[in-house]
Design a protein that fits this description.
The chain has nine helices and twelve strands. The protein has 306 residues and is an alpha/beta fold. It has three domains: 92 residues, Arc Repressor Mutant, subunit A; 105 residues, 3-Layer(aba) Sandwich (D-Maltodextrin-Binding Protein, domain 2); 100 residues, D-Maltodextrin-Binding Protein, domain 2. The strands form four sheets. A five-stranded mixed beta sheet has the order 4-3-5-12-6. The chain has a three-stranded antiparallel beta sheet with strand order 10-7-11. A two-stranded antiparallel sheet has the order 1-2. Helix 5 links the parallel strand 3 and strand 4. The longest helix is centred in the N-terminal third of the chain and has 21 residues. It starts with 12 loop residues before the first helix and ends with a helix. The model has no long low-confidence stretch (mean pLDDT 89).
């Protein structure tokens, strides 16, 4: 072997793909099931790479799987690029050869039901050679998926992202107040933030979301009374529909009823407010992957066309 390639003698594509599967699944056993191989095969691949580098790629969490170390995130980013290129080389004789590879997409769970299914169909149509692994999570989870390397791309609000993450705005949202049909706000065409002072408020039990809403209100001198904090968006809307309080939201479902059939009224906020940006986010170190660049172009184009 030519001397410039001496260092890759101890690394194989199988080791890289096995290790990538463990990184994606967060578990050696789950990676083994995904690839239909034995757990020792996955463990051996990880051990071989860690011997090569002399550094740990994963932190082991007893009974909770594995997570990439900071060095592991860097290695796996380069491994994905290499595996993308190997896939391209392997497909050169195919008459329909094009962009191929696998990407992970994590979407903020508040907006995922509204945009993700249709977006996945469009990516499937435009990039048939690309496999998209998709998940939905809260704001903190989406940011964590990017920094841990378990997601390559994310669609999320402009909240909680680290400085080394590259972003592009794909659309913007204005906040609304939602309330029950019996609430005094239901008869209004708009409401000012000052009118929310002392109102019972239903919050999502997500730190970044709750901090944003409370910060928005308090910056206008509004001090609400927190009536409840709940995890699920539909429970959030159902409590509002049943008169437990009002809420401030950005994403509005097409339906004007909660799960139990009770109406939910959405009223625009009259104050001039900074729009909430919905971002397409990616780690800077992943920008060199052609498959990611192709997916980003299609996602941006999808929202640009409405």
């Amino acid at each position: 072997m030519h001397t410039q390639y001496q260092k890759i003698r101890s690394i194989t594509l199988k080791q890289l793909t096995y290790t990538l599967a463990a990184a994606d699944e967060g578990s050696v056993s789950a990676a083994a099931r995904k690839l239909h191989v034995s757990q020792p095969s996955i463990s051996a691949a990880i051990a071989a790479l860690e011997r090569h580098y002399g550094l740990k790629l994963f932190t082991r969490h007893p009974a909770q799987g594995v997570s990439l170390t900071r060095f592991g995130v860097k290695v796996m980013a380069e491994a994905r690029l290499l595996c993308d290129q190997a896939q391209t080389v392997a497909s050169l004789a195919s008459p329909d050869a094009g962009v191929s590879g696998e990407i992970g997409l994590c979407c903020y769970e508040a907006i995922a039901p509204h945009i993700l299914p249709r977006l996945l169909l469009q990516l499937q149509e435009k990039l048939p050679g690309v496999i998209v692994r998709y998940t939905a999570d809260d704001l903190e989870g989406v940011a964590g998926a990017l920094t841990r390397g378990t997601a390559d791309l994310a669609i999320t609000y402009d909240l909680g992202l680290e400085k080394d993450i590259l972003t592009e705005t794909i659309y913007t949202l204005q906040p609304h107040v939602i309330c029950s049909a019996e609430h005094a706000f239901a008869a209004k065409t708009s409401v000012r933030l000052s009118e929310l002072h002392g109102q019972l408020l239903v919050l999502l039990d997500q730190p970044l979301s709750a901090q944003y809403v409370l910060g928005l209100l308090r910056s206008s001198g509004v001090e609400p009374v927190i009536a409840a904090q709940v995890r699920g968006f539909e429970l959030h809307r159902s409590l509002v529909a049943n008169g437990f309080g009002i809420a401030v939201v950005h994403t509005l479902p097409k339906t004007a009823t909660a799960y139990d059939g009770r109406p939910v009224c959405a009223i625009p906020i009259a104050d001039t407010l900074v729009e909430q940006r919905v971002l397409l986010a990616c780690l800077a170190q992943n920008q060199s992957r052609p498959v990611l660049a192709a997916a980003q172009r299609e996602i941006v184009a999808s929202f640009a066309s409405g």
